[in-house]
Every structure is written in C-alpha cells, then in structure tokens.
Amino acid sequence: SSELTQDPAVSVALGQTVRITCQGDSLRTYYASWYQQRPGQAPVLVIYGKNNRPSGIPDRFSGSNSGNTASLTITGAQAEDEADYYCNSRDSSGTLGVFGVGTKVTVL
Amino acid sequence: EVQLVESGGGLVQPGGSLRLSCAASGFSVSDNYMIWVRQVPGKGLEWVSNIYSGGYTYYADSVQDRFTISRDNSKNTLYLQMNSLRAEDSAMYYCARERQVWSSGWFWYIDYWGQGTLVTVSS
To answer: Which of B3, B40, B49, B109 to mutate: most A Cβ within 10 Å?
Structure first.
C-alpha cells in the first residue's frame, strides 16, 4: 500500500511536547519529510531525511523513524506551531510522492 | 533567491481545459525535479504529477491521461495542461521543487513551494 496514515488532530499545552506519527509501508524503504501549513499559506518544510531541519526551522522540531512509522516531535510547543502537519514519502514504486492526510495541531 | 510563481487558474466548465504555469527564478527547472500538488480548500495535500530532470513524467491515477506536465527550459517555466476537467479537480494548485538525496538510502523532500493558483471547475 502507498497510503500514509496520520491522526487527524492532536492538542498540546503551551510549552509541552507533542509527537505526530505517520505510518505506511513505504516508510520501511524511504524516509518521510514533514510540512507545516498554516491557514491560507503554502506548506513549509520542517523536517527531512533522517532528522534534518532546513535553515530557519527552530530546533524544537525533530524527526525520527522506526519500521513503518515516522514521527515529528515538537518539544516545547509554541502558539505559532498551531497548524496542519503533513508527512510525505514515496509510493511503493518510488516514482510518485504521497502525502499523509494531515494532523491538525492545536496549542492550548 | 528561489521563487515560484503560479498563474493560469480560474473558472472553467466541466469538460474544459486549462493550462497552469509556474515561473521559476533563482534556479533552473531543467536541472531539478519539479512537481504539482493540489489541495481542495479545507482538505489535505494531493500529489498530482512530477517531472524529473531527465524528463521522465509521472501522474497520480486521478489525473492520468487527462493532465500533462511539461517545462520550457528557455522560459524556466513549468506547466500543467489540464484537459477533460471535472468538478473534483477544483483545488488550489501548487508547483514546487523537489530534491532527491542519497544518505543510507534515497529520500526526497520539497524545499520550495509557490503560493498556488486556484482552479474552479463549475458550470
């Protein structure tokens, strides 16, 4: 299967830690990348590869991988982290990309 | 500075056609992997099509045989020709640049996105 499964929504108290997971068979072969999307804006890359952050992404964002699951962790969540988060990887053929359904993160 | 600017969206009737453009600056589209992603307002991201630097093209099943991705190297522009449009093709369409990296395995990531162009298919 080429699907990537994410929990639809999670909430986290301000300053606390939240982990978002992404499951799929293709993650046994390919790393996931993670994107943050705020309302009305284009997605922004936050994590890629094993655990890499683009320039300008705070170090409270981190990624990990185990088996068929990729995880994005926000350590010390801030109000501005409230957004939708999508994982992305390849399909089983390795030619097309596939996105998870997205997780809405609410910071309380 | 890398920039991607989409254009060409609008209102079109079912069965009609539309061509989206994505003007790139700060890098060469011909040397990079380029993709189109769409998003129905309020819904998730959907991969539409990609073109490799070598020219190979790939399409999601939902658009196969109706959409064509291409590029004009002289204009440094990516295109998406959309034919036989359906109501379910209505979405914001983003063009983006994808990077491929080898590090103990292949992985890909999308490092730059345009701001999108809205396509509405309705009678």
So the answer is: B109
Mean pLDDT score across all residues of chain A: 95
pLDDT tens profile B109-120: 999 999 999 999
Distance linking the first and last C-alpha atoms of chain B: 40
- Written as one string, the DSSP assignment of B27-68 is S-GGGSEEEEEEE-TTS-EEEEEEE-TTS-EEE-TTTTTTEE
Tokens describing residue B104: 């103990």
Q: Are B65 and B72 in contact (CB under 8 A)?
A: no
Mean pLDDT of A23-37: 94
Burial of A30 (0-12, 13-18, 19+ CB in 10 A): buried
Instruction: Compute the half-sphere exposure of residue A67: CA atoms within 13 Å on the CB side of its CA.
Output: 3
From the list A43, A96, A100, the residue facing B113 with the nearest CB is A43
- How confident is residue B86, by pLDDT bands cut at 50, 70 and 90? very high
Q: Is residue A44 scored above 60 in pLDDT?
A: yes
Q: How far is CA A89 from the centre of its chain?
A: 11
- Residues of chain A neighbouring B101 (CB-CB closer than 8 A): 49
Residue A96 to residue B60, Cβ atoms within 8 A: yes
Task: Give A46-92 pLDDT, tens digit per residue.
Answer: 999 989 999 999 999 999 999 999 999 999 999 999 999 999 999 88
Q: Is B120 in contact with B16 (CB distance < 8 Å)?
A: no
Q: Pick the residue of A29, A95, A101, A104 with the most B CBs within 10 A to test the interface with B by mutation.
A: A95
